[in-house]
Amino acid sequence: MYGLTRYKLLFLLPGLLILLGIILFPLGFTIRVSFSGWDAARPGLDWIGGTNYSRLFADGRFWESLSRLGAIAFTSVILEYLLGFALALLVWRQVRFRRLTRVLFLIPMMTTPVVMAVIWRTIFHESLGPANDLLSLLGMGSIPWLTNSFWATVVVILVDVWQWTPFMFLLLLAGLLSLPREPFLAAAIDGAGPIRTFFNVTFPAMAPISVGALIIRLIEASKIMETVYVITSGGPGTSTETSSYYIFIRGLRDFQIGYAAALSVTYLVIMIVLLTIIAKSLSRYLVKNGA
Amino acid sequence: MAKIELRGLGHAYTFVGGEAQFALHPLDLTWEDGGTYALLGPSGCGKSTMLNIVSGLLEPSLGQVLINGRDVTALGPIKRNIAQVFQFPVVYPAKTVYGNLAFPLVCRQKSKGEIDRRVNEVAELLNLDKFLQKPARSLTPDLKQLISLGRGLVRDDVAVILMDEPLTVIDPQLKFSLRRKLRDISARHGHTLVYVTHDQNEAMTLAEQVVVMDSGRVVQMGTPQELFENPVHPHVGYFIGTPSMNFLPGRLHGNDVEVLGHKVGLPTTSELSGVSEILVGIRPEFISLAPRAGKKTIPGLVVDVQDMGGFAILSAKLSEDCELKVRARDHVPPVGEQCHLDLQSDRVRFYLDNRLVN
User: Fold this and answer.
1) What is the ipTM of this complex?
2) Do A188 and B93 touch (CB under 8 A)?
3) Which of A66, A171, A257, B133 fits a disulfide with A38 by CB distance 3.0 to 4.6 angstroms?
């Protein structure tokens, strides 16, 4: 038995080492750095105890960025889900042009985030962008897209929705196509119209897939960064600043490495707890009502 | 309660070069009011296609569907007053059993009192009354299938109940009791019942009339006994009965038919002038094992014996490429021994070009 255990370890070792190297070491190192005062003036791993953490708890800008992130992520993911589901339902039964529409929907997903963020910034440019041109053509005046905190948030959400709705669409379409036919036939026999069929058959059957899609997108959306960086740089003021962007400012612009590490660790813990709770309650609620 | 007529009904899912590839070849069929019918055939023979056309889920490429003399070909399922139960139990998972049973009535905007009355009636009929408040998704497959059936029965205007292999996912023991329940219900309410299955036992025990199908065609329709005794096509003999009918090559000598030089019977038809070869069919049930060689017996070598409990299925080799199955009760000879087979001459059937001729 002893020999077998040793062999097992031997075979597991390469994988374990890689895991250790790429996940556990950086994580451990970040935690260690978060207890140091490493910054541009005094680089190095000294020990300052929990100073960074007590500073963080008093840092209103961080907590604001976190709640802003929550609002942006939730709004865009819900919009993406609704739009994606609607689009998937629209093309679900259609047979012609199926491949073409799917490829078209994929384009936003395949573009580089920074490139398309630049394009969107140009579109929403207040004096040169086509968005305002169009609005004034329609006689609605121009909107301060990037200098008003409300509209800037709208633009960030809009770009995220534009980029990620296709992902939702594809996941939900795959789900729809995998549904069995019988329940739909039974609903037709029972006399259910399209709305009743949707709420009693389609939606419950799609619940597990919906939960998966929503959670994947929420995790992804909670890291939103490039769009903010390119389009608004967190502005005007700090009104579109999300957590990851704030951590980026502290760590890589101000070089407060120790403090940024403390922010990252806190952010990570909050995200893990929050997303676990969301995932659990979502699946309990939706899957219970589904299959 | 309704009479259903299919007139020149045919369906093709695909067309190759403008020519229809029929899944269901054009046919005429009448199902009488209150009858129980089974559509029997192997997978892909067109039975489900026929059922979906009758229920209105599928529009036929050709012909008409008449319910009580009214042409309903262009009408959707709601307007036809049809209940259909599918192979896999369908329940609305978010609803209770009550909600499930009430659903068809809710869709038809019936009053609350009426819904309540009907649901309770049907729940009692199907013994679902103690589950009414439970979520439907938590039930076992057989109870779910009862709910599917119940959703058909709650509508008191249902003309016909169509079932598409509804017992496939049910345990064998439960199958038996469910089958009996189905019979009772259809007998008591006088619903016309059309039942699709590939299981001959199910078809034979449930239906008054069995429609045997093969490759999109109706081969024979008749009572279980007719199908057993006089299969009009070798396919029917093959598909019905366990084990299936034996088929042997026969030769005509004057008026006699001989199998391997032994006289087996005398066809009563005059169609056979000029024919020398004929297919001879006999059920394993109508062959007996003679204790010794006689004038009428055919010798064979026992090559296999399957003990089925109450009886045995014996395979006997008559020649290099000719084997017979016999259903034997006692004195079953062991493998490797000679046996003497006695074919009941009045039970022998003759087929010419896959058609019964005597």
Assistant:
1) 0.71
2) no
3) A257
